[in-house]
Amino acid sequence: MAPLIQDGFVVAVDSSDTDASKLHGKVFIAWHKDKGLTISRFRRYDHTDVLQPENTEYEAVTLNATNSWKIVARVLWWIGKAP
Question: What separation in angstroms does the CA of 32 have from each of 24, 35, 65, 68, 81?
Fold first, then answer.
């Protein structure tokens, strides 16, 4: 599956909306000190939080204290040129 948000798209975000308990199913931006930024969908399964990329070429990442991913903003909308 192709990425939902492609290179060159413009993304509007809300950096005040980072409460994980309200983000299930939402698209958001997460940051890792070594890997940079990623745009993924947030999924919560019981008490496990997961970064689920729309692009199936990338694996999901479980959020926990040891992997250092931090939610930095919720994506409000995006716009780009159709392929």
Answer: 20, 5, 12, 6, 28
Report the Cα–Cα distance between both ends of the chain, in Å, rounded. 14
Mean pLDDT by 10 residues, the chain (83 residues): 78 91 89 91 89 86 86 93 74
| Three-state DSSP class for residue 20 | helix
Q: Which CATH superfamily is domain 10-78 in?
A: Umud Fragment, subunit A (2.10.109.10)
Give the pTM.
Answer: 0.81
